[in-house]
């Protein structure tokens, strides 16, 4: 048995990347990171609202 011979036309010569149809798994942040950022954003807004409320009550 002999290995089939490959001609130069059988190999892929273009090195252009494929057109992307959508986000890959590599492009997305891990779920734990996304949840953590969401919690931090909610927490910061809650603290800011609490400080605003304190200044509102103290001023009037």
Please summarize the sheet with the most strands.
Answer: none
Q: Which residue ranges are poorly predicted, with pLDDT under 50 across at least 5 consecutive positions? A: none
Which outline best applies? rod-shaped
How much strand content do the residues show? under 5%
H-E string: H
Q: Give the helix proportion (percent range).
A: 40-55%
- Number of separate helices: 1
Average pLDDT over all residues: 82
- Give the helix/strand class: mainly alpha
Number of strands: 0
Distance between the termini: 94 Å
Radius of gyration equals 28 Å
Sum this structure up briefly:
The protein is mainly alpha-helical. The protein has 1 helix and no strands.
Features:
single chain, 60 residues, mainly alpha
């Amino acid at each position: 048995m002999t290995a089939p011979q490959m001609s130069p036309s059988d190999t892929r010569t273009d090195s252009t990347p494929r057109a992307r149809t959508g986000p890959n798994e590599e492009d997305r942040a891990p779920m734990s990171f996304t949840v953590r950022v969401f919690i931090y954003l909610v927490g910061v807004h809650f603290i800011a609202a609490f400080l605003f409320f304190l200044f509102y009550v103290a001023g009037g």
